[in-house]
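Fold this: Thiamine-binding protein domain-containing protein
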Amino acid sequence: MDASVAIQVLPMMEDEKKLVSVVDAAIEYIQSTGVSYEVSAFETTIEGDYDQLMDIVKQINLMAAKAGAPHIMTYVKIDYKPEGQVLGIHEKIDKYQH
């Protein structure tokens, strides 16, 4: 695992129910990819192969548009280590789970 990516999808929609359904569609897409992921209140973190994760980032916007979002803001944070392994989700947060 050479990358960890945090994705925050913000559909620009006034109807909160529709907004939530677009975010749900994005998370369902991430689930369908088979990568390791963690959903939190503001973003979803995915981890795995850098190229696969970058493709997921690209597809997220397309999936949000297909789910009905007329305008999408997507914020992405990338932890990439081309010659080794990045710290995994569980290494970063397990000690804080209760």
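The chain has three helices and four strands. The CA atoms of residues 35 and 59 lie 14 Å apart.
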